[in-house]
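Researcher: I'd like a structural prediction for the single chain below. Treat it as a standalone chain; there are no partners to consider.
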Amino acid sequence: MTTPTIDPAAVLRGGGQVGDRVDPGATEAEDQGDRSPAPLLLLLHGYGSSERDLPGLVDHLPPGLAWASLRAPLALPQGGHAWVPITVPGRPDARATAEAADAVLGWLEAHVPVTTPVVPVGFSQGGLMATQLLRHAPERFTAAVVLSGFVLDTSLPGDAALARRRPPVYFGHGDADRVITAEATARTSAWLPEHTRVTDRLHHGLGHGIDADELAEVATFLRDALGTT
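Model: Treating it as a single chain, here is the predicted structure.
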């Protein structure tokens, strides 16, 4: 099986309301001079979607943040992309999940300086990836946002370091979600407080999606986590 990688030509990247495809040779520091780099939101779409799905959220978040929207490496026969195949809902293959996280970390290493604060923002299966990235490289991420996502149901070597670091995490989910299993959501609500400083918000009547109230909470969370205005 081919090891998954992130296609640099399929990454949308921008700041504020502007996005474009990233130059594979570019880095976040190139136009920064001696200034501190802006925090980077790492947008991770859900199963069957693409890198074009989440950039619209940026308009509702604090201004001045850079962002990069990655396309998941697994092309689906019906169109769209995925981070991992769906086998048992809410319980993806651990090896496939690890390989997908390593692909994202490889892209970060090649394109984003280690001095840049990075916040994974993942929806659905992208939320799985956000939690997985924290577990693979706890020191690399300043915070995380998990929207209708979940955590892999196995222990990982990075879990102890993550529990010591305890980065802030926003976990938003709806009680009308019929895509992510109730067991996977409950598992995540139990796991996150043991490893992070979690803001866990249940939205009544919200299905498998993101609404305005949730986005407002995410904006407040990011201001607090990143010290932005």
